[in-house]
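During the reporting period the student researcher (J.K.) took over the structure-prediction task from the postdoctoral fellow and processed the backlog of single-chain submissions. One of the processed entries is reproduced below for the supervisory committee.
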Amino acid sequence: MSNIKLVHSGGNSVSLTTPDSNPAANRTFKLPGADGSSGQALVTDGSGALSFATVASPYSFSHWYLTGDYILAQGTSASNEDDTVENWAESNAEGYVRLGTAPTYSSGQFTLPSTGYWRFVGHMIFYHTTAVGDSFSFNIRRSTDSGSSFNNVAVTGGRFDASQATNSKFCWTVSGIVKIDNISTNRVDIFAEAVASSGGARLDGGSVANGQTGGTHMTIEKMANL
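J.K. obtained the following structure tokens:
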């Protein structure tokens, strides 16, 4: 193997050498014509041209809330209802900050801005306006066909006893990592399953601006690239 040896005036040297294994073909790397900025890294365009660039962290986050109480579907089956949770909006709190690009939202479904591994953490504040026994779950679901069908990624659930006082609000947290490998066809939603068809089941919501109490909320974070 050959190398380029740069000798310091003090006598020691630094060398650039070839790979341990024989390359599949001859390689040429063209150095940039100017130095980069502090903290930048040397990157390639995939064709041998090197340049200095800022390497961005894949991590990003945004925070979402329900704009008002969301009444879960009632009356479409004999005993239990299934319903995609809707009416999400990005936080309107005065001190809110977002890192990176936020997902887009429409009719209960989130479309992520880039491929990668995304974490959803939803805090679902659930209650009934009429006493009723109710076993239920909240699910994070992923679609690979633009929202036509979904599979569960994570589930949490519980039960309200019929003796529970009406309008008693409890928080269930559902959290899961969703792999997004196609931003054109992948969708994510939050789904309420097997909610009692009577009892006025609903999720607490409301503005978080100007010290208002808010309610059900969710954080969406990109954890890593694919």
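The committee noted the following: The chain has two domains: 3-53, 60-224.
J.K. will present the remaining backlog at the next meeting.
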